[in-house]
Design brief:
The chain is of the alpha/beta class. It is 48% helix and 14% strand. It folds into 3 domains: 5-80, Arc Repressor Mutant, subunit A, CATH 1.10.10; 101-233, P-loop containing nucleotide triphosphate hydrolases (Rossmann fold, 3-Layer(aba) Sandwich), CATH 3.40.50.300; 239-304, no CATH class. The strands form 3 sheets. The protein has a 5-stranded parallel sheet, covered by helices on one side. β1 and β2 form a beta hairpin. The N and C termini lie far apart (67 Å). The protein binds adenosine-5'-diphosphate and magnesium ion. Adenosine-5'-diphosphate binds at residues 97-100, 125-131, 214, 245, 249, 253, 275-276, 279. Adenosine-5'-diphosphate is lined by residues 97-100, 125-131, 214, 245, 249, 253, 275-276, 279.
Length: 305
């Protein structure tokens, strides 16, 4: 198949679809009808893309062969199918995250928006930043691609995105991403277009990519990267919020009975602001009891934590 043949065949498919083949072209259409040079048509015929319906001294009538129709039917979904995707199903999304209502609202809107708005969740550890990314991955399935900044270098961001063609890029630990991947990211966040400097090759993504990222530190990020994101700073939980979050996390995610979850939360009140502390206490409580677990994990010798 020569370069440009697909275009020719696409034109012929359109021509046949818009014509009444039985009535108007019972003996096939000729080169004049489709405005394609006779020698080109006879080559397509030899290659099996056309059938010769009629032949006389003055008229050669063709129509597309079954093989050509099949080939074009298979080629079509790739051309058009991916661009008009259904919206992501956001029902029940973020259900397992306690609080952070405004972040939930923002991220949901960004997932549903027609054009991309990239969001960066920033702030100290244990505020559910990664959990937000996990939840998005869960509802988006293959349409999302999960990357951890510190581990993106193996294949390279460019190659991974080119191969997987995700709609949503989830990047945890954005501050740890290497320079090459950061450069690729900068470019693709602007136009949905990646330019690979090495080979000067370009890739046009079928989908407009949207990025949701998380980072503990903002200071590590270059100004140009930062400005491409809507930066949402998550601040450490207040004591009241901490109680609510710990209760929710321990009963729902860790499977503790509600009264035990309440007790761990109360004992940690004023002692820790870190949800991960509560999870560790809950996991060791069956062996140690709550007080002892808190003492060994947070109090006393391990206070540098
Ligand atoms: N608001 C919250 N709702 C539910 N779980 C939470 C919340 N805040 C923290 N957690 C829990 O705390 C732990 C750390 O959360 P993670 O998303 O890894 O935080 P980050 O990425 O901000 O460091 C996880 O087990 C998570 O379930
Ligand atoms: Mg995290």
């Amino acid at each position: 198949m020569k370069e440009g043949d697909i275009e020719l065949l696409t034109g012929l498919v359109k021509f046949e679809n818009s014509a009444d083949m039985e009535k108007e072209y019972r003996i096939g259409w000729s080169w004049r009808h489709v405005r394609i040079w006779p020698s080109t048509l006879s080559r397509l015929f030899k290659d099996g893309y056309l059938e010769n319906v009629f032949r006389s001294n003055s008229y050669t009538g063709y129509r597309l062969s079954e093989a050509a129709k099949e080939l074009m039917a298979r080629a079509e979904p790739e051309e058009t199918g991916q661009t008009n995707n259904e919206p992501i199903a956001t029902g029940g999304l973020f259900e397992d995250i306690v609080g952070h209502e405004d972040v939930k609202e923002l991220l949901t809107a960004c997932l549903l928006a027609e054009k991309p708005v990239h969001v960066l969740l920033a702030g100290p550890p244990a505020l559910a930043k990664s959990l937000f990314l996990w939840d998005i991955e869960r509802v988006a399935g293959k349409r999302a691609l999960w990357l951890v900044g510190s581990a993106t270098s193996k294949a390279g961001l460019w190659d991974v995105v080119a191969e997987r063609q995700p709609e949503i890029l989830l990047i945890d630990e954005l501050d740890k991403m290497n320079a090459a991947d950061t450069a690729a990211l900068l470019s693709l966040m602007e136009g949905g277009r990646l330019v690979r400097a090495k080979r000067g090759r370009e890739l046009n993504l079928h989908n407009q990519l949207r990025v949701v990222a998380a980072s503990n530190r903002l200071s590590m990020l270059s100004p140009e990267l930062r400005s491409r994101f809507a930066v949402r700073m998550l601040t450490a939980y207040s004591r009241g919020d901490y109680l609510i979050v710990v209760r929710g996390v321990l009963s729902r995610r860790e499977g503790l009975p509600q009264d035990l979850a309440d007790e761990v939360a109360r004992r940690l009140d004023g002692v820790s602001q870190d949800v991960r502390d509560a999870i560790r206490v809950a996991r060791l409580a069956p062996q140690l009891g709550i007080d002892r677990a808190i003492k060994l994990l947070i109090g006393g010798e391990s206070s540098e934590k």
